[in-house]
Fold:
Amino acid sequence: MGKTLFEKIWESHVVVKKQNGPSLIYVDRHLVHEVTSPQAFDGLRLNKRKVRRPDLTIATMDHNVPTNDRSLPILDQTSAIQIKTLEKNCKDFGIKLFDINSPNQGIVHVIGPQLGITLPGTTIVCGDSHTSTHGAFGSLAFGIGTSDVEHVLASQTLWLEKPAPFEIRIEGKIKNPHAVTAKDIVLSIIKHIGTGGGTGTVIEYRGEGITDLSMEQRMTICNMSIEAGARAGLIAPDEKTYEYLRGREYTPKNFESMIGLWRDTLKTDSDAEFEKQFVLHVDDIAPQVSWGTNPGMTCDVTDSVPSADEFAKGDLNQKKGAEKALAYMDLKPGTPIEDIKIDRVFIGSCTNARLEDLIEASRVIKGQKISHHVRAMVVPGSQMVKKQAEEMGLDKIFIDANFEWREAGCSMCLGMNPDILSPGERCASTSNRNFEGRQGTGGRTHLVSPVMAAAAAIKGHFIDVRKMDLS
Amino acid sequence: MESFKKVSSIVTPLDKVNVDTDQIVPKQFLKLIQKSGFGKFLFFDWRYDENKNKRPDFVLNNPLYVNSKILVAGDNFGCGSSREHAVWALLDYGFSVIIAPSFADIFFSNCFKNGILPISLDEKTVEKLQQETSPIEVDLETQTITTPSDKILFKIDSHKKKILLEGLDDIAQTLQYEDKITEFEKNSKISSILIND
Structure:
């Protein structure tokens, strides 16, 4: 029997296999940030251990960095300490750091691909659940806890049980790709399979609906694999993948010869079997808007807020969850999604803050002003994205429309820095999680695509972006 | 890590599905650089209102459960962010066993690194345990949960069981395979990141 792409990458990284037990898997790339690493470095010091392969490890600061003027000191003392701690740890252990003043600073999952650190066929880990993003390049990439961060620093390996391969096939062609995006595809998937639908699996996204997508759109899809509970999500590399990576700063010297090897090996065999399968037809899908407090609580923009019963379909626990979500979100069942007014708009995060996201959103905004009662911000995913956007004049389009134009970081995706919602504020957000309090205690998050967020900023409420002039 | 053997206590019923790690420990508390002291932040936004007063309807604020070591929750517990701070908070608060119909992968793995035993049982059994008001006993060695009326067997991977029972240092174990890791590296086609620097 043939093998899936995931199984091939897995098998090529097994260092030790215990009978009926876990395998010791080699890690090719380890990405480190300020929030989930301090305790790991402390553990190394305590046990007098070194970092085994500093040359396979890079660090940046993204989670709690302010996104306003970088020349000002960081006011929050605990954030400042965490950032200083990362600087010291990288210096002590010989790890390359893209610090707050580096032109390469940015959200770790944006800079990895952008710098060519992310490569096909590799294993990539980071103390962050959205590490699944890098799977868009045909790598096996997943988030780990801090104990595992320490384990990888010390040994460059991890003990893992082999997850099950899960095929998600995206069939058909999206009719209006400027209005219906990769974000809508992945939200649709999670709406159908649920936030636990991928638990214990590695998803491989396949089909025409995937190969049609650009690399940045593929990253959006793989990024949210974790929101379906999957350990990782990946997409077989193709010519788009190699073209994207060619010439980037940290791609290896033998890149061109590696492409030959990747072309031959990095694909699922035609007779391989998946343990689980799901098919989504995208010909007629609508822009998606989440209404609840997990990403599975999502509907079409043309729908109304469902009742707890409609959502739960007979499952009592899901019903209780939905009732609580509706109360938290202060939404009445039956309210058309387009009637929901918003206070804030956040275009940013490792899901949707790449150059293409900003280009697409700017097409909606151009020449218009945001609604008078809305506060809106764009937080580019990296300083490089910011610079490229500014070279194209996108900053001007956003600023003219009264958006705030910020420095790179995770920002209001999780609100560890000063960018947060006030209690009760409602936000159209291009991020990945609408959990209670995620963007600020008492804040209400609706997950949408960048173009849907841009459209909501202009109108002051959700609107089907397909109705807007995107020429 | 301390070794895990038996735990006896009453259960704290947390009647919620899809409890994410943002709820277990909200982001404003992730800025500490040590592992200790996270217990006071456990379920912070559910335990306290905006004026930092205890919410009387939240289960952890019920004096009945103050010394409970066993949390019994709904499906897909620990989903979302990979933050191990969630496990540190549960442990520091006093929980050493979490029972639920299912767990998110990263959270599940994080538990074993810190001496917390996550047990998944079918939904009906979990619901029954949530109703249990007498103390129960969880014995890892025999993989048994004993209630006044029942004996429930649970499954656990033998390697994970050993790690908890012996309180093993994971990294020390792995470094015994150092020659194998070195051998693997010699054959790896993937170059270092910084070769171009």
Summary: The longest strand of chain B covers residues 6-9. The longest helix of chain B spans residues 178-187. Chain B has a mean pLDDT of 94. Residues 47 and 57 of chain B are 9 Å apart (CA to CA).
